[in-house]
Design goal:
By secondary structure, the protein is α/β, with parallel strands linked by helices. The chain has 21 helices and 15 strands. The structure holds cobalamin.
Length: 494
């Protein structure tokens, strides 16, 4: 086939349609090095995705590749009916899915008549080889690592692809999207934008989907390339804050110090994700360089207040509840806010596990009241290990079709808020009530609209509950949060 056009599509990724730079698609587009006509369409920015795609697809769709990035949850819910509709209208349209969801659940995706190919893992080389095959018949489909495809009535998945080194990949073409649409006001700055400067993470945490993508590999842009990108976004579009959504930005201390020094004069603010044990090993010189370069908050996986659970999670390294407390105390000295995420409700005894971690969170808050707390429920990913084995033994199984995956319960599951059998509704309510009281007594600092007065009012209204550990039926606090339009970053981004 002659490829006339490649449409790289970003389905709607949140109910609020908060536009986040579609970095997956910018990375894929850059790897194609203008060999084919390509257009990026972001469903979060167009009124009607079907109409927007229709204008780009000719006749029966022959020669057009629709390549879609799919995360679990809202993106899957948007992409599935959309692809089926487009396939009905353009039977010769070639549809390719890539990203976290199809990489982990390729069979459920490929079973669907609307989907022709799945690109698993980091897709730069995989997708390019697929396009070469579609145009010239070479390479053979079975030889393309990372590809899942239909061989007559058989579904086939080739070996996992190697993880490409981001430093050796072409630079993103920022002109391919309207950057101004991705600059957002947040607590970090008036023009905040997302960036991603590395692939992977060296660790194997049992609840994390990244492990399946990279199996412990971590590779990054150099400090120079990362800083140059920040300088450009600042100079050309006035970006004054950066959210590095790398799975683990802080793996390499030398890179972080050099990066911090290279952006120090920009006067921007930034945020990133890291590990407690890695950053506890950082020198004070590094902490000073990060602070002086505008680092405001670090997302850190504290995960649990229980040593046993951390072992069960294969957290690895030397992360411990004691080290978590040391870390929040140290960050207080550097006026950098720790944003700690916890995974609650882990088998075998979800109740005991959750109560232990909720108690631990009170110690964290006492050590550093500014600490941001994010609560997730343990949500299985297809990763062999003690945790997954336990939930499978209790009868847990992933859906086998897209229709099941886009059904209510599994959409909640994908957003880590579903009613999991080993947690049960009573414990789920206890965790929600604890979160409610915690977010009243210690309201998030990431909500610019929450004035000091409103924060004081929330704190006063919840003080008795927090000190008496009385979390049941916090309806008055729920009403207050509604009136104050309170929202948490983990559900709606900053
Ligand atoms: C930015 C982001 C968001 C943004 C949306 C971005 C968007 N596209 O509009 C927001 C904040 C809205 C968001 C929301 C959610 N997210 Co999110 N998100 C991310 C994050 C931090 C960065 C993604 C990114 O751009 N990476 C940079 C690019 C370069 O890498 P990449 O995406 O992996 O792309 C490469 C490959 O995956 C592949 N690829 C990807 N797409 C495509 C498409 C094609 C056609 C091809 C060929 C290849 C390909 O090739 C790319 C280049 O190598 C990732 C974690 C991460 N660091 O990657 C989590 C992540 C994907 N999100 C996750 C989750 C769970 C969610 C939520 C469900 C959270 C929630 N509780 O609500 C929601 C769901 C939203 C939805 N489904 O619509 C999980 C997915 C876990 C899983 N089980 O699969 C991740 C992995 C975080 C984590 N560590 O757990 N997210």
């Amino acid at each position: 086939m002659k490829i006339n056009c490649i449409i790289l599509f970003n389905p709607i990724s949140s109910a609020r349609r908060t536009p986040v730079l579609p970095m997956s698609l910018l990375a894929i587009e850059a790897a194609l090095e203008d060999r084919w006509p390509t257009v990026i369409i972001d469903g979060n920015l167009v009124a009607n995705s079907l109409e927007a795609l229709e204008t780009t697809i000719d006749n029966d769709g022959a020669g057009t590749i629709l390549a879609i990035t799919v995360m679990p949850g809202p993106q899957l819910e948007h992409a599935t009916p959309l692809c089926r509709d487009l396939k009905r209208r353009h039977p010769d349209l070639t549809i390719v899915w890539g990203g976290y969801f199809p990489s982990q659940h390729w069979e459920a995706c490929l079973k669907d008549p609307a989907v022709n190919f799945i690109v698993q893992g980091h897709g730069e080389a995989v997708f390019t080889s697929l396009l070469e095959h579609l145009e010239t018949g070479r390479p053979e489909l079975e030889s393309i690592a990372g590809l899942a495809w239909k061989d007559q009535d058989q579904l086939r998945s080739n070996n996992r692809p190697p993880v490409p080194h981001p430093a050796r990949l072409p630079h993103w073409n920022l002109e391919s999207v309207d950057i101004t649409r991705y600059l957002r006001p947040t607590f970090l700055g008036s023009k905040t934008i997302g960036l991603h400067s590395s692939y992977g993470c060296p660790y194997f945490c049992a609840f994390c989907a990244v492990v399946n993508m990279v199996e412990g590999r971590w590779m990054a842009w150099s400090a120079e390339r990362t800083a140059d990108m920040v300088h450009r976004l600042h100079a050309d579009w006035g970006a004054d804050a950066i959210e590095f959504s790398d799975n683990n930005f802080f793996v390499d201390e030398k890179r972080v110090v050099e990066f911090s020094r290279r952006i120090q004069d920009l006067g921007i603010s930034w945020w990133g994700e890291g590990r407690i044990d890695t950053m506890m090993d950082y020198s004070d010189t590094t902490w000073r360089a990060m602070r002086d370069s505008g680092l405001r908050m670090v997302f850190l996986g504290a995960e649990s207040g229980s040593e046993e659970t951390l072992k069960l999670m294969d957290k690895g390294g030397s992360v411990s509840p004691e080290m978590t407390l040391e870390m929040v105390r140290r960050m207080r000295e550097w006026s950098i806010v720790p944003e700690l995420s916890f995974v609650l409700g882990n088998p075998p005894d979800a109740q005991e596990d959750a109560l232990q971690t909720m108690d631990f969170i009170r110690k964290v808050k006492a050590a550093n009241p500014a600490t941001e707390i994010i609560l997730y429920l343990y949500t299985p990913v297809p990763l062999a290990g003690a945790l997954f084995d336990q939930v499978q033994a209790s009868g847990f199984a992933f859906p086998e079709t897209l229709d099941q995956w886009i059904s209510g319960d599994w959409l909640d599951f994908a957003q880590r808020r579903s009613d999991l059998s080993w947690v049960g509704p009573r414990l789920q309510r206890q965790i929600k009530n604890f979160e409610r009281v915690l977010n009243a007594y210690y309201p998030t600092t990431t909500l610019p609209s929450l004035t000091a007065g409103k924060r004081r009012f929330l704190r006063t209204a919840s003080a008795w509950r927090y000190h008496l550990k009385f979390n049941a039926a916090p309806f008055e606090l729920a009403a207050l949060h509604r009136v104050l339009h309170y929202r948490r970053p983990e559900t709606s981004g900053f």
